[in-house]
Amino acid sequence: PSSLEHVQRPGRPSWRAALLRHKEPGPRNCFHCSVCRFSIGNTPCWAEEFEGRMTATEFLPLPVVDGKTLQYEDFLKTYALPRQPCLITNLGENWPALAKWTSAMYFLDHQGVNKDWEVSCSAGPAGAEAEVETTVGEALRTIGANPSEPFYLNAWAYVRGGSEGLAEDFSVPKFFERAPDFLSSNVVLGNSSIDMRWLYIGSKGTASPTHVDTNLSSAWLWCASGRKEWICASGEDYDLLTAGTGSAAHGYRSEDSDTDSDPLPDFFDPQLFAKWPKTRQARLYRGVQEKGDVCFNPSRCVHAVRNLEACVSLTHNFVDATNLADVASDATRSLREEILPMCREMRPKSFLKHLSRSLGISRAELSQALLDLPSLLSDENVEEAVSCAAGGAEPGAEREACRAKLHAELRRRLAKVKPAFEEAAAELKERLAAGLSSSKK
Predict the structure, then answer these.
(1) Which residues are bridge partners to 77 per DSSP?
(2) How far apart are CA 206 and CA 242, in angstroms?
(3) Contact (Cβ atoms closer than 8 angstroms) between residue 303 and residue 233
(4) Average of pLDDT values for 47-54?
(5) 359 with 187: CB under 8 angstroms?
(6) pLDDT at 58 over 60
(7) Distance between CA 92 and CA 95 in Å, rounded?
(8) Share of the chain above pLDDT 70, in %
């Protein structure tokens, strides 16, 4: 399949696109400046480098927590379930990637990297960038040859692109991706084990504009080298910030968005609060991610990021018991607005053929996934998802407490979305089953 059907920059490979192609902040927060993480009397605030600096008092400090001491139960209660973004330090200290992922050249020389994989990159400074279609190899050579020129290899889907051997250089922290296969490999939920794993390699001054992550999933981003500036909103303010923005609220790329919808607020606009008054009501967090830090973006978190230095970073989006209700809500919308209309307009075999090519999976695999969709949120599956997520805690009382907390919260949230999800999934199954049955006669 074409790489453009899988590139997410910063959005998602969409059903719509396929159809059209038919706890508390850590000590590094200044008491007078919620923008940076340097102590008074240490180094000048890096935010002074930027013209038209936004008023620091308009932002909250992005919480910083030590990954060495953070307990899984605290992560759930303080960050994941309340949809609170944060920075987690001291993760990956022993990963080979910390020493190896220092520049584009490591990836260019790596024998396990598919350098012919097609990617979409950004050339030029943030806000004035142009999209460039190229290959991984050419992008890496461009970055290596011109390190001072703004060029961003962003959202390189390294697993989908045949470079999954890079995963040997790191391990997933215990806080993330604790999900059974029926969630992580489900194509309607984003196929996160293949299509939601990316590398970002870019020079100073490159950026990802304000966006919502694909499928309303959660994400962890580890900075292997360089420094990044983040502005993240509480996931609880998603509705406030995305009202009227159309498909951008669901993580779509600009070319797939509604032309008559409002744009998402530009979090890095010096006049942010004047141009988008609703942002004054939102909880916006601002902070700097250092080498070795993880930025956790929960589901429904509207955010933007820019590179203060040349950066290499890893991002994995994921679906688990902490965000399953949010992802199921997005899937329901996708079923009603995209998948079912496509199925109604096309014969089942043509529908499956067209969609399987777009998503890069076999027709048999896609067909089975769609036919099994009505039972995805069954009691048995929910229990398995909860148990898998609770496995991040130590055995015993902590794990049981996590299991109880996850179970109660997921049940509460699913009660609002499960009926609509199952209704849409059942209609799709009925249409596919009837169409496939008649085609065999």
Answers:
(1) none
(2) 24
(3) yes
(4) 38
(5) yes
(6) yes
(7) 5
(8) 84
Write out pLDDT tens, residues 299-326.
999 999 999 999 999 999 999 999 999 9
Pair of tokens at residue 354: 């067209």
Whether the CB-CB separation of 272 and 50 falls below 8 Å is answered with no
The strand pair at 86-89 and 64-66 is best described as: parallel
User: How many angstroms from the chain centroid is the CA of residue 255?
Assistant: 19
pLDDT at 1: 31
Beta-carbon contacts of residue 118 (< 8 Å; ≥ 6 apart)? 2, 3, 4, 133, 134, 135
The predicted structure's pLDDT at residue 352: 92
Instruction: Give the SS3 label for residue 387.
Output: helix
- On whether the CB atoms of residues 62 and 298 are closer than 8 A, the answer is no
Length of the chain: 441
Distance CA 345, CA 368 (A): 20
In 3D space, the residue among 286, 247, 285 whose CA is nearest the CA of residue 264 turns out to be 247
Is-contact 225 314, C-beta < 8 A?
no
The residue assigned the tokens 């995209």 is 338
Please give the pLDDT value at position 349: 86
